[in-house]
Amino acid sequence: MSAGDLRKCIGHGEGKWLVGVVALLVLVACEQRAAPDRLLEGGAFPALALPRFDGGHTALREWRGKLVILNLWATWCAPCRAELPSLDRLAARLDPERFAVLGLSVDSEIDIAREFLAERAVRHARFEYIDQDQRISREILQVRAYPITFIIDPHGKLLRRILGEREWDRPEVVAALEAAWAGDLQALSRL
């Protein structure tokens, strides 16, 4: 049916049911529903197997017993590039027996991410993971903007989700992470 035919039907009252159906479809299509939030602070963080640059995988559970700072980043993301050096300095300041600073790139090319990290001499943070197809970031973690950092407690619970660039090696950030390790989760609210 053409637009002209539709106008004729509506004008003669013959297409009232069609108008009703179209109106209902428009209302349903315009309704926005938030994706279900499977990552509630205080809830379990997904049991991920992080793909490494070398083709292997490392299970996130290997860091159980440590407070994990998991940063999702990309070379094409200006705020990600800006905060990366401070994450590396943070990893150097924290006790590796109690903390792990990890980076999961969402770049599609391993070589680009690897070269970027080599140029910036990232030595302390474990930024050797890549989510090339963004299955982990988009489907499992439901990330839509970068950088995003997840702080995960030693038992695998999500403590905080922090969107946007931060200067991670500031003394107050280090103090908040140390306090969270000691059990003061309120300290993380200042990040």
Q: Which helices and strands, and how do they pair?
A:
Blueprint: H1 3-11, H2 16-30, E1 49-51, E2 57-59, E3 67-73, H3 78-93, E4 99-105, H4 110-119, E5 126-130, H5 135-140, E6 148-152, E7 158-163, H6 171-181
Quaternary structure: single chain
Number of spatially distinct domains = 2
Strand arrangement, major sheet: 5-4-3-6-7
* Radius of gyration, in angstroms, nearest whole number: 23 Å
Looking at the structure, the CATH topology of the largest domain is: Glutaredoxin
* Mean of all residue-level pLDDT scores: 85
Give the CATH superfamily of the largest domain.
Glutaredoxin
Point out poorly predicted stretches.
1-10, 17-36
CATH architecture of the largest domain: 3-Layer(aba) Sandwich
Characterize the biggest β-sheet.
5 strands, mixed
Strand tally, please?
Answer: 7
User: What structural category do the secondary elements indicate?
Assistant: alpha/beta
Distance between the termini: 58 Å
Residues in β-strands, percent: 15-25%
Please give the share of residues in helix. 25-40%
Features:
two-stranded antiparallel ribbon, 7 strands, 5-stranded mixed sheet, 6 helices, 191 residues, disordered N terminus, Glutaredoxin, 2 domains, alpha/beta, single chain
What does this structure look like?
- The protein has 191 residues and is an alpha/beta fold.
- It folds into 2 domains: 33 residues, no CATH class; 142 residues, Glutaredoxin, CATH 3.40.30.
- Helices cover 35% and strands 19% of the residues.
- A 5-stranded mixed sheet has the order 5-4-3-6-7, covered by helices on one side. Strands 1-2 form a two-stranded antiparallel sheet.
- The radius of gyration is 23 Å and the shape is globular.
- The N terminus is likely disordered.
